[in-house]
């Protein structure tokens, strides 16, 4: 039901991960990386340079092995990157 509501409203979720927490953020489909960063804080959108991106498909097997950056395919994406829905 939630997935259907997100599709109807044109929304998607992206995740941020740190040492102590993982957070889910709701953004519009088609938002750029700086717009997605702006959901966290306005200053992040204005000062956005690039983002480290790991797709869920690449990350999930790596998390089990506790070495996501070594085993997953990481990429640095610039300001013009579009956020893609992962379902």
């Amino acid at each position: 039901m939630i997935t259907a509501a997100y599709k109807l409203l044109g929304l998607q979720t992206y995740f941020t991960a740190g040492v102590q927490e993982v957070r889910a953020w709701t953004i519009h489909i088609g938002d750029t990386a700086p717009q997605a960063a702006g959901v966290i804080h306005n200053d992040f959108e204005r000062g956005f340079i690039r983002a480290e991106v790991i797709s869920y498909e690449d990350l999930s097997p790596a998390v089990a092995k506790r070495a996501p950056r070594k085993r997953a395919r990481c990429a640095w994406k610039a300001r013009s990157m579009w956020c893609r829905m992962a379902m």
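The chain has five helices and four strands. The CA atoms of residues 52 and 69 lie 10 Å apart.
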